[in-house]
Design brief:
The chain is mainly α and 120 residues long. Helices cover 72% and strands 0% of the residues. It folds into 2 domains: 1-81, DksA, coiled-coil domain (Four Helix Bundle (Hemerythrin (Met), subunit A)), CATH 1.20.120; 83-120, no CATH class.
Amino acid sequence: MRKRDLTRFKRLLEEQRDQLLGNAKKALSGDIHLDPDDFPDEIDTASSEVGLAFIGRLRERERGLLNKINAALEKIEQGSFGECEQCGEEIGIKRLEARPVAELCIDCKAEQEKLERRMG
């Protein structure tokens, strides 16, 4: 992969990481809490709890993405960014543009998904 492409992907990944960390800081600043006195009935309380559960799931997904971003940045530093972890071939630039944290080339990913559909 060309150095210019690596620089572009590094910048993109760092921007994504900074945005996720900013979102996490906002969440930790105290926006999220439940006070039973704030809700006049059980339906309002249940609705709020569902909303908080949804936010929790989003944060968990963001944490997983953050781990993948950090792994991709580490690969850039090690010189292995853009290599398929399964077959060792180069991951296509179009795939990396669509998903910079991709660990598998399109063929290996398609095979993985086919096996997952059979198993699950």
